[in-house]
C-alpha cells in the first residue's frame, strides 16, 4: 500500500466490497465524503462475483434480478448510482420468468406483472379464484408497508407491527386455500430465500416475489458488472478500493472510538467512521468481543444462518442446448417446504435451474447452473481448509470425491427434467458451502445471511448502529438479502450521515 494512503484519515472505511459495502461507498462518495473500501479477495463484489471454468463465466449468487421495470425501485437506485445505462440486461419471458415444476411433470408459470400473475394462477386453478385474489391482495398490502421498497421515507414502522413481522409465510398461504397443489405453487420459488416452514415470515416471501413481478431480468454476461460499474462510480467521486486487504483487528482511542483497522498484511487504514459489510458475528470477532454488550454478542453469535447451497455448473458442447429465458424450480417432492430437511438417499429434493445469458451465443446456452440445498454438516470435516485465489490452499482428494458424488446425484435429477441432456454436456463443476464461506465471508457459507424468524422477529433484526459509536453495519443481515434488499440496507445505513428525505428525492429524480 502506498505510504501516502496509509497516512490519510478517510471519512469512511468500509469493510467488505459486497453490494452493501459498494452501495454505501457510492452513496457517501457521491455526497462528497472520502471513502476507502477494503476487500479480502482479489475480486470485488461478494455474491456479485463471477468465476471462469473452461472459458465460461458463472455467477456466484446473482442469477436474476427483480424490480427493474422503468420506474421500479431497483431501476431508480441504479439510475441514481449512474450505472443503469452501462448494465447489459436481458428481460426474462413476459409470460413466464419462473416455472414451478413437479415430479409428475406438471408446470406452473409465474408471468411478469401482478395482474398477469393473478390471471395466470386463476386459469390454472379456476375453482380457487377467491384464494388467488386474497393472496395477491395480501402481497400488495404487505409490500406497501415497507416504505423504502416503494421509494418512500415515511410510513408505518413495519418493525413495530406484530401482524406484519409475525405472519408466517407457510401458515398464511395454507390459510387461504385447502388446495395442496396451489399452496405448493404459491410457495414454489422459496429456494430464493431458503424458506423454512416454521420460520419464514410472509413479508420475506411477499417482498421478494413482488420485486420479480415488477420486472425480472438477467444480467447478460454475468452479474459482476454491477460491482464493476459501482466501483467506477466510487472512483469517479474520489473513493478508493483496496483488494487483498483482509481486516483482522481494530484500534481504539480513549473515548472508545475506532481509529483504524489493521489488515492481515499489516496495513492500517485510519478513519472517522467505519461500516462493516461483513456478517455481524464476524464483525464482532474483528472489532473485539469486549467492545459489545454480552447480551448483544450472545444474540448475534447465536443467530442461525439460512441454509447453504450446493451449486453445480455444467458446460455444454457448442450449439446443443437452447437458451432458456426463464428459471425452473424443480420439486422432486410434493411439499415444497420439505427440502430443507433431507435424507442423503433422497437428496436433492428441490433444484433451481437456469441458463446464463451470454450475448455471443444468443439462442444457445453455453452453460447451465443448478442450485440445491446442502447442510453445512456435510462439509464439516474440511472446514479447517481455505481455498480462494487470494489464499490458494488445498482440499483433499476425499473432498474432490465428495463433490463428484454430489455432482452425479444432481445430474441424475437433471436428466429427469431434460432427458438426454447428458450427451450435450462437455464438463461439470461445482461449489460447496465452503466455497461460499471462503469467498463471501459468512461462517457456514450461507448465501442469504441470517435466517428471519416469524416466531421471534425482534431477535433476528440487526440495527445498523452498534455500541461502538463510529461502527455501523450494512448488508443482507441488516435488511433483506437480494440485490434490492441489500441496496435498501445501504441507504438505511447511510441515513445516519445523509438527510434521508433529500437522498431519496435524489433517487426519485435520477
TrEMBL record:
Query: Which Pfam families did the record assign?
Result: Amino_oxidase
Q: Does the keyword field hold Flavoprotein?
A: yes
Keyword check for Ion transport, yes or no: no
Say which domain of life the source belongs to: Bacteria
Occurrences of domain Amine oxidase (ranges): 19-378
Ranges that cross the membrane: 12-30
Q: Which UniProt keywords apply?
A: FAD, Flavoprotein, Membrane, NAD, NADP, Signal, Transmembrane, Transmembrane helix
What InterPro entries does the record point to?
Answer: Amino_oxidase (IPR002937), FAD/NAD-bd_sf (IPR036188), Retinol_saturase (IPR052206)
Stored PANTHER family? AMINE OXIDASE DOMAIN-CONTAINING PROTEIN, BLR7054 PROTEIN
Q: What is this protein called?
A: NAD(P)/FAD-dependent oxidoreductase
* Organism whose genome encodes this protein: Dyadobacter sandarakinus
Amino acid at each position: 500500500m502506498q505510504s501516502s494512503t496509509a497516512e490519510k484519515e478517510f471519512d469512511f472505511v468500509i469493510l467488505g466490497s459486497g453490494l452493501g459495502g459498494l452501495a454505501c461507498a457510492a452513496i457517501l462518495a457521491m455526497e462528497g465524503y472520502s471513502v476507502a473500501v477494503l476487500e479480502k479477495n482479489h475480486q470485488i463484489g461478494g455474491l456479485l462475483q463471477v468465476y471462469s471454468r473452461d472459458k465460461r463465466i458463472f455467477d456466484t449468487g446473482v442469477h436474476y434480478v427483480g424490480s427493474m421495470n422503468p420506474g421500479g425501485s431497483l431501476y431508480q437506485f441504479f439510475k441514481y448510482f449512474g450505472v443503469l445505462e452501462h448494465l447489459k440486461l436481458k428481460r426474462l419471458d413476459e409470460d413466464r420468468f419462473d416455472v414451478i415444476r413437479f415430479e409428475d411433470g406438471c408446470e406452473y408459470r409465474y408471468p411478469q406483472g401482478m395482474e398477469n400473475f393473478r390471471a395466470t394462477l386463476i386459469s390454472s386453478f379456476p375453482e380457487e379464484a377467491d384464494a388467488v385474489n386474497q393472496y395477491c391482495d395480501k402481497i400488495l398490502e404487505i409490500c406497501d408497508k415497507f416504505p423504502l421498497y416503494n421509494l418512500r421515507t415515511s410510513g408505518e414502522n413495519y418493525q413495530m407491527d406484530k401482524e406484519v413481522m409475525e405472519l408466517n409465510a407457510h401458515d398464511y398461504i395454507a390459510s387461504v386455500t385447502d388446495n395442496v397443489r396451489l399452496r405448493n405453487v404459491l410457495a414454489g420459488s422459496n429456494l430464493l430465500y431458503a424458506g423454512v416452514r416454521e420460520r419464514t415470515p410472509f413479508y420475506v416471501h411477499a417482498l421478494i416475489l413482488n420485486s420479480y413481478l415488477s420486472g425480472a431480468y438477467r444480467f447478460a454476461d454475468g452479474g459482476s458488472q454491477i460491482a464493476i460499474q459501482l466501483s467506477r462510480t466510487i472512483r469517479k467521486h474520489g473513493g478508493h478500493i483496496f483488494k487483498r486487504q483482509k481486516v483482522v483487528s481494530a484500534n481504539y482511542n480513549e473515548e472508545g472510538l475506532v481509529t483504524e483497522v489493521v489488515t492481515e498484511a499489516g496495513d492500517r487504514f485510519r478513519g472517522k467512521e467505519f461500516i462493516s459489510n461483513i456478517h455481524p458475528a464476524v464483525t464482532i470477532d474483528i472489532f473485539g468481543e469486549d467492545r459489545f454488550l454480552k447480551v448483544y454478542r450472545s444474540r448475534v453469535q447465536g443467530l442461525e444462518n439460512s441454509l447453504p447451497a450446493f451449486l453445480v455448473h455444467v458446460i455444454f458442447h457448442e450449439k446443443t442446448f437452447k437458451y432458456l429465458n426463464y428459471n425452473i424450480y424443480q420439486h422432486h417432492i410434493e411439499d415444497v417446504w420439505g427440502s430443507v430437511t433431507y435424507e442423503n438417499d433422497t437428496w436433492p429434493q428441490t433444484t433451481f435451474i437456469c441458463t446464463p445469458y451470454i450475448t455471443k451465443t444468443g439462442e444457445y446456452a453455453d452453460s447451465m447452473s443448478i442450485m440445491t440445498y446442502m447442510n453445512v454438516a456435510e462439509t464439516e470435516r474440511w472446514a479447517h481448509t481455505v481455498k480462494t485465489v487470494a489464499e490458494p490452499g488445498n482440499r483433499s482428494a476425499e473432498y474432490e470425491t465428495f463433490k463428484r458424488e454430489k455432482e452425479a446425484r444432481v445430474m441424475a435429477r437433471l436428466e429427469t427434467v431434460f432427458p438426454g441432456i447428458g450427451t450435450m454436456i462437455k464438463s461439470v463443476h461445482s461449489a460447496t458451502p465452503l466455497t461460499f464461506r471462503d469467498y463471501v465471508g459468512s461462517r457456514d457459507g450461507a448465501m442469504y445471511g441470517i435466517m428471519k424468524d416469524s416466531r421471534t422477529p425482534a431477535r433476528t433484526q440487526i440495527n445498523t448502529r452498534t455500541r461502538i459509536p463510529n461502527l455501523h453495519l450494512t448488508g443482507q443481515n441488516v435488511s433483506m438479502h437480494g440485490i434490492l434488499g441489500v441496496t435498501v440496507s445501504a441507504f438505511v445505513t447511510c441515513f445516519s450521515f445523509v438527510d434521508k428525505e433529500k437522498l431519496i428525492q435524489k433517487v426519485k429524480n435520477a
